[in-house]
Amino acid sequence: MTIQNIGIIGVGTMGSGIAQVAAQSGYAVLLKDVSDDRAKKAVQKIEGNLSKLVEKQKIDQTVKDKTLQNIKVVSDLTSFKEGDLIIEAITENPQAKQELFRQLNEVVKPDALIATNTSSISITLLAAGVKNPGRFVGMHFFNPVPLMRLVEIIAGIQTTEETIKTATEVSEKLGKTPARIKDSAGFAVNRILIPMINEAAYALYEGVADAKTIDAVMQLGANHPMGPLALADFVGLDVLLAALEVMQHDLGGAKYQPCPLLRKMVEAGWLGRKTGRGFFDYRIS
Ligand SMILES: NC(=O)c1ccc[n+]([C@@H]2O[C@H](COP(=O)([O-])OP(=O)(O)OC[C@H]3O[C@@H](n4cnc5c(N)ncnc54)[C@H](O)[C@@H]3O)[C@@H](O)[C@H]2O)c1
Where are the domains of the chain? Predict the structure, then answer.
């Protein structure tokens, strides 16, 4: 199936990034959020990102203009009736996503492909709520989308090979490297990355070293571009805790047991950069 237009629902951190790369790759892109104001803010953010790319001479003004022309904000779900591919990137809440898919069932054409950017919810479970589960797939982008090269392509047990092929081709057209992953909690990247971050939190909790040292040794000794605790602050401690709980529930075993310090910090509202305090303090800088 040829994809010409892409609808994106939920244009926060991830949806706006996906919209930018899709529009830059020549797709006609429709954006919808809970309000037009939010969707327009996403367009402003994209415009700002593109202006920076023009300043750095990574793209020229024509590319910026064309990219913005490819983006349209819509208020109503019925605008997605012609959509070839609809990517859901709303809040990580299974009920909210299922409700959205129920509404989309009334609107989309039968052969439309529906993708979710969920980080942790079962693709099989979400597919069960759409009209054509064979045309449902996980397309897991990474933050920040314009910079991160990977898309995990996740098939539920209902997903057809043709759907996987189309999602793979679209990811490549977006300049990304797709990787096919089984529908299993945490998929691949988060299953490996999040327990490592959790272990770094345990090392801090048990006094192995202080936070700065833990990050420094992982940068110097393991060649990580960013320390695990700084990365935790970037992702959000609440997001990490929720993902660990999903992995612990679905996969079992002590290895996904969230560090008590992580849990306490979430209770305190120390969620990382977004609240000004996490493993590091961002309020003074
Ligand atoms: N943030 C990350 O690093 C990251 C990485 C990969 C995947 N994800 C996944 O991507 C999805 C979005 O995450 P995010 O970080 O962009 O969240 P976000 O909070 O930045 O954005 C979510 C957006 O969805 C909108 N929204 C909520 N309900 C809606 C509805 N019913 N209809 C339309 N819009 C609605 C919100 O107004 C908001 O603008 C989640 O499933 C998350 O797990 C996040």
Answer: 5-182, 190-274
Confidence band, pLDDT 50/70/90 cuts, at residue 253? confident
Q: How far apart are the CA of 117 and the centre of ligand 1, in A?
A: 8
Cα of 206 vs centre of ligand 1, distance in Å, is 34
Kindly write down the DSSP assignment for every residue of 137-192, as one continuous string: EEEEE-SSTTT--EEEEEE-TT--HHHHHHHHHHHHHTT-EEEEEES-TTTTHHHH
From the CB of 38, is ligand 1 less than 6 Å away? yes
Q: Is 186 in the pocket of ligand 1 (CB under 6 A)?
A: no
Model's pTM, two decimal places? 0.92
CATH 1.10.3720.10 fits 5-182, yes or no: no
Mean pLDDT (the chain, rounded): 95
| CATH class entry, domain 190-274 | mainly alpha
Is 98 strand, coil or helix? helix
Q: What is residue 285's predicted lDDT score, i.e. its pLDDT? A: 57
